[in-house]
Amino acid sequence: RDTDPGGADDKQRQLDDVRLDLTGTELTTDQGVRIDHTDDALTVGERGPTLLEDFHAREKITHFDHERIPERVVHARGAGAYGVFQPYDDWLAEYTVAEFLTNPAVRTPTFVRFSTVAGSRGSADTVRDVRGFATKFYTRQGNYDLVGNNMPVFFIQDGIKFPDFVHAVKPEPHNEIPQAQSAHDTFWDFVSLQPESLHMIMWLMSDRALPRSYRMMQGFGVHTFRLVNAEGRGTFVKFHWKPVLGVHSLVWDECQKIGGKDPDYNRRDLWEAIETGQFPEYELGVQLVPESDEFAFDFDLLDSTKIIPEEQVPVRPVGRMTLNRNPDNFFAETEQVAFHTANVVPGIDFTNDPLLQARNFSYLDTQLIRLGGPNFPQIPVNRPVAPVTNNQRDGYHQSFIHKGRTSYFKNSLGGGCPALAAPGAEVFSHYQEKVEGHKIRKRSESFKDFYSQATLFWNSMTEPEKKHIVAAFRFELGHVDHKHVRQAVVDQLNHVDHNLAVMVANGVGVNPPEREVTPNHGRSSPALSQITMSLGG
Ligand code: HEM
């Protein structure tokens, strides 16, 4: 490659000729000047003013003054680890050209960051919240990021609502209370006015929101993505991580006590497991749906508030990831890692899920400010193992030393510009989906059943799990000052399950709904046997 990170080669050789016999353990300035005194600034006399010419003191303090970068606007608190992913066999090659998913001889390095969503960087681990499960695969075809959560659905259907949603979830703006929990008026006001959030709310009030360990947590890509095979044929796909240790949660009482005694509980557990060689493992699985079955479901595959029930489309195992190394430096690696849903490789593509489309804009945009300009892909944790050769130049924190006199395409002078991939070479080419329509702001009618899957979730719970959910609603909603908000949420829950609504109402001081409403639950089941048959599941 002609873009050599750090420009190490020639310059280094030249410098090695004059290398001093230093051990590298002595204190120096950033310019490599050795220092033997760092406790006292340079002053005029023993009790006089500090001198501006004390470059060591100025550099030391200046660097410190600039140590902080903005925390992530969401998912600010996290813990990361390196690992490796390896497919079990090549069965998925029928559906995708992504080598890291289909070549069992290839071990792909990964970096995973687990996170909470709402709290700030210093908040506690054991709060009731969604957990992020973001994986960077450093594949030979480029970096692929699977930026998922530990719950398979999301609060909203279209990313244009994300700023409203996050403003409602985060601590309230006048007093920055409460930190990292959903027990507040703005959050529940949002929920009561946006019934599309109800399915996710059921997950959030369940024990899934209190993972005992990051090693015992599922991960989901949430959206329907698309796999593309060598013939250019697309297949819809949902990605699943299943922890080999099984899924385990804390109970609320434990969370509150642990939160006081060890706010780093999940972070510490991950670190210690890896340090002691008990490497966390997760199986990657996929649910596949042929394009011909796009409309075979009673929900829309592009709606991120819906799961594809596993009874209808089974999860088929693809491979396994083992997390086997802790980062050396939290800031350099875990804080500076930058995941992006649009980081895809040949064989994986997007769908028109409006939540995904917004994410494909948002991550790069936020990282440009969080990581200080356009060159953050050069930070070691973000750098692909695949060669990077292009005409992108300059900018803050540029550490490639680009050689040659040209940096434009096309050119006839040579000298540094990469050539286009040769015909027939494997490249990323966007899936050729046919789209047509009028420009409108209107949600599809196929997105408008907000309750069926929330009910499905509730009905799938055991009695102890149901009790935990009711207790969670009572605790969280019980902290809401505005009675009309509590009432509105209970009225929404009546669309999910009448008994649930009554039990919650009785715990939060509002009127229980009198009658069961008949939500839109009884819609006919699709011809799903065809789907499983056509994919051999
Ligand atoms: C961060 C997941 C929806 C914007 C994250 C992270 C995860 C995640 C795991 C943390 C990444 C890390 O560890 O560094 C999800 C999932 C979503 C979703 C699963 C829905 C299915 C959205 C939407 C938007 C958004 C709709 C915006 C329109 C962001 C931003 C960050 C973030 C700005 C901070 C990224 C950074 O500073 O590097 N998300 N998110 N997310 N998400 Fe999302």
Automatic annotation (TrEMBL):
What is the official name of this protein in its record? Answer: Catalase
- State its cofactor: heme
Enzyme type, top EC level? oxidoreductase
Source species taxonomy: Bacteria, Bacillati, Actinomycetota, Actinomycetes, Pseudonocardiales
The entry sums up its family as follows: Belongs to the catalase family. HPII subfamily.
Is this entry keyworded Oxidoreductase? yes
Q: What is its EC number?
A: 1.11.1.6
What organism, scientifically named, is this protein from?
A: Streptoalloteichus tenebrarius (strain ATCC 17920 / DSM 40477 / JCM 4838 / CBS 697.72 / NBRC 16177 / NCIMB 11028 / NRRL B-12390 / A12253. 1 / ISP 5477)
Domain Catalase core: residue ranges: 28-417
Keywords, A to Z, come to: Heme, Hydrogen peroxide, Iron, Metal-binding, Oxidoreductase, Peroxidase
Q: Which stretches of sequence are listed as region Disordered?
A: 1-18
**UniProt KW Transmembrane helix keyword:** no
Function description = Decomposes hydrogen peroxide into water and oxygen; serves to protect cells from the toxic effects of hydrogen peroxide.
Give the reaction(s) catalysed: 2 H2O2 = O2 + 2 H2O
